[in-house]
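Dear Dr. H.,

I hope your travels went smoothly. While you were away I took the liberty of generating a structure for the chain from your last submission, since the lab meeting agenda had it listed for discussion. I wanted you to have the full record in hand beforehand rather than looking at slides cold. The sequence, exactly as received, is reproduced here:
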Amino acid sequence: MAVEPTIQHLGRTTQATVRGGDVQLKHFRNALLLKDFVVATERENFLELRRRAYLAQDDWPMRVIVRRDGNRFDIRYFLYIPCGWIAGFTFLMLLVLPFAGIPNAPLAFGLATVMAILAIYKQKIDCRPDARFWQERPRRRWGETMERLLREAFGHP
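The corresponding predicted structure, in token form, is as follows:
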């Protein structure tokens, strides 16, 4: 009897709750490794995987965090904006805008500041299937991919 994963989109992260064992976890881990994830941290009851950005393919960096409590797995996954990107954007904004010769530079500086604040606020992005406006296609694509991987790995007890 297959058990469906419980998936909730929490605004900044997507959380899946599934039941399984070592075999299912290993199958899920290996499926993520085939999708170009790398293991960042691996302990007895904790696993974190990361995937780098492929911006030319409209793909943002992503993290998957797996916490285990017996046969219950709490899996959180999200796209994110790396702190280095935000710091680099802010540094360039402060370095380039004053010397760029842009007419109405205070307006450009204000818009750039708003963008930096928005990036910090929306640093983590969930993978909901009805995503709109902000990274719509990658969020939908990864939401579908993760649901499929979860069903394949944890669908059979």
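Two observations you may find useful: The chain has four helices and seven strands. The longest helix spans residues 136-154.

With kind regards,
E. W.
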